[in-house]
């Protein structure tokens, strides 16, 4: 599936990401329907939402969203058997960044993904090099 950027992404993830930006409580949704990479895709949406909320505008938010998928791939996890907090802690922590922290991270997505030890569980670089604080997964090239 081709992603069309922050403004054109699936509504449920976008609304969830915007909920973070607005400071809404993050509530558990039906994990059986989320899919094995939903938490990873949520991270991309939350980075875009925080960027937009902190002044990057649509173009800046879309650029970071597109850069996420150009540089990283999502790791599949079973949303039923994997502890919920492990799957969603990355997007939760990214969603809590204040605008000063968002501005400091800017376009350096590795800095965004260093926010939680859960991020390397969800995301890996396309080139196979480990994320800061992460380890290379077996079979990564």
Features:
disordered C terminus, disordered N terminus, 141 residues, mainly alpha
What's the topology here?
Layout (H helix, E strand, L loop, with lengths): L10 H11 L16 H34 E3 L9 H12 L3 H7 L3 H5 L5 H4 E3 L16
Antiparallel strand pairs: 1-2
How would you summarize what this structure contains?
This protein has 141 residues and is mainly alpha-helical. It has one domain (9-125). 52% of the residues lie in helices and 4% in strands.
Q: Low-confidence spans: pLDDT under 50, at least 5 residues?
A: 1-29, 135-141
The residue fraction in helices comes out at 40-55%
Domain count, please report it: 1
Question: Which sequence of SSEs, written as H and E, runs from N to C?
Answer: HHEHHHHE
Question: Taking all residues together, what is the mean pLDDT?
Answer: 76
Oligomer: single chain
Helices, by number, come to 6
Strand line-up across the major sheet: 1-2
Radius of gyration: 14 Å
- Principal-axis shape: globular
Percent of residues in β-strands: under 5%
Number-wise, the strands total 2
């Amino acid at each position: 599936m081709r992603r069309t950027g922050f403004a054109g992404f699936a509504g449920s993830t976008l609304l969830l990401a915007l909920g973070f930006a607005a400071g809404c409580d993050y509530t558990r949704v039906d994990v059986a329907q989320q899919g094995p990479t939903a938490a990873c895709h949520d991270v991309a949406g939350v980075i875009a939402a925080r960027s937009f909320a902190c002044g990057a505008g649509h173009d800046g938010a879309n650029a970071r969203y597109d850069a996420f998928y150009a540089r990283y791939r999502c790791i599949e996890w079973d949303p039923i058997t994997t502890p919920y907090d492990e799957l969603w802690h990355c997007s939760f922590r990214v969603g809590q960044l204040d605008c000063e922290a968002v501005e400091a991270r800017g376009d350096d997505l590795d800095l965004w993904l260093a926010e939680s030890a859960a991020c390397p569980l969800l995301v890996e670089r396309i080139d196979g090099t480990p994320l800061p604080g992460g380890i290379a997964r077996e079979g990564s090239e």
